[in-house]
Description:
By secondary structure, this protein is of the alpha+beta class. It has helices at residues 35-38, 42-61, 91-104, 157-167, 229-238, 312-323, 332-338, 609-613; strands spanning 16-19, 22-25, 72-82, 128-132, 145-149, 176-181, 189-191, 206-209, 354-356, 360-361, 365-371, 379-384, 387-388, 391-392, 398-401, 405-415, 418-430, 438-440, 451-454, 462-464, 474-477, 485-492, 503-512, 514-515, 521-527, 535-541, 551-552, 566-570, 582-590, 595-605.
Amino acid sequence: MGFIRVLRLFAIVPLFLVLGNGLMIAQRTCGTPDLEMLTATQEGRARQIAFETRLQNWQAEHAQERTTEATYIIPTVVHVVQLTSQDLISDACVQSQIDVINEDFQKLNADTNLVPASFLPVLGNVEVEFCLATKDPNGNVTTGINRVVSPFANHNKGTEEDSLKGLIQWPPSQYLNIWVVVDMGNLLGYATFPSELAGSPHRDGVVLNGTYLGRGGNCSAQSPFDLGRTATHEIGHWLGLFHTFQGGCAGTSASNCAIAGDNVCDTPPTSSSTFGCPATKNTCTETPTDMDDMTMNYMDYVNDICMYMFTNGQATRMQAVLGSVRSVLVSQANHTATGCGCSAQSPCAPQANFGADNTTICPGQTVIFSDLSTGPAVSWSWTFAGGNPATSTLQSPSVTYANPGTYPVILSITNGQGSNTKAESAFVNVVQGAAPPMAEGFESMLPSNWQISNADNAQTWQVTSTAASTGSNSLFMDNWNYNAQGSEDVLTTRIVDLSNYGMADFTFDYAYKRAAFKFDTLQVFLSTDCGESWTLEWEKGGQALATVPGVSVATAYLPAGPSDFKTDSIDISNYLGVNGFKAKFVNLGHEGNSLYLDNVNLMGFVGRPEAVNGPGWSLHVRPNPFS
């Protein structure tokens, strides 16, 4: 068949600009497989033939069914893969990206006025709406934005595609999975083609370089790819579109345009990819009418500001994919299952739900509440016992709590289909810090007012009886069996009131042995405001962290006894006089060795330093982690 013939290969050598501290991509790059790669094997060739045949049959059967409304709703989840728990890409930036693709796929983008007159007759509306899912695969409420901490946030497509997507993927028959990574080298993004779904469903979706995500002030996208069009381009591939320059000057007549080049007849063939913002050009000759190259098409390689159209033929091809290969995705049953069956135009019965940026705070601090309801709601009525304000009709109010205690929150919502209320009897916990001493030897379960944050839901801090500095137990971090480079596991202490103390000692015991060629790091951060902000005060890694000589090769480190432990101190003189002191211990794992922590103690005193610490007392403040 014509559309799978061997086509010439073309190579693109990307150009780069050095901006600030990083390497920025100056010409568009795309990692989606082209036709040659899709048909490189006999199995791939067979899948592509079956896929194209299925599309042709669907288009023939539904040729008269195009409408002028956004009839296809695609439930979408965005997996933001981060190196640390600190959000680098905001929810607002993700939403801006969703706004861009909804505009582009519904011909609502303002720059359609730039489409040349010769192409206006074929300017297409794909009639697709992307909906951030409000239900996860288990039916739980979600924002459709899922955050994962992993070293694969620095992504290499050639060696790590399965590893990245293996971190988290929601069923591809129900959701468009979009992974956003921190860095992807010289790639802006890549997608899987619909013909790959049957053979590799575990890879289905779109991967985007977070440096070029979204648009506007909530994002930090870098020019010239700062308008969110990379997602438009890659989702075009995910819905079955080739580059407009696929095959070069192939498919130049009405007899072969549907089975050659990009298999779309109203996109003029183009000899090669186009970069930047070019002047009008014509690199191929078509019959019976010769057209200029459609460089402003989303499926070429021009800058974001210079791409602003799909064609009717491309829209029909993408709708054929949604009507055949991806039909379950856009079914009404799936819309209900994913929470995408409701819209402002067609609301469902409302279901109230809410969240908050922090639910354990100190007196005088503020909680920002978020509406997670479905329906959607058109009005909100909040009640905050003990808070200021005590009531609100805002969708996302901010509330300050002055006094210690545990407080309920109530949210009632309404829309045209009815009303619903959710009440949480003990949602906000306002804690008054307790005075020193804080003496934790982990001799039983972790105290309820200490917290562990385990962003990747894998190995984390746990109480163990296999080793201790004193007593029987300690806290243990199993980096040896933790196959994740750069994982971050956080242990946070209770709140301590130091408002009446002019002197204090903060000490802890730890034990660690190096593993060959692997270097874990332990960090200690301190806070004066109950954990709203943190300052790094102590850090050791690799050889500097080791408390015993040598390296472990075959088995994980197990301390031989209390003598393996080392006691270290942090000067907290700058933290005295506050009532919201907290500490957090952060294990940065690099598949190294077991780390043990014991006897986290904070003692408050009145008197001269020599009387407290003795003449041999010393401080260890932020040493070089690998010295």
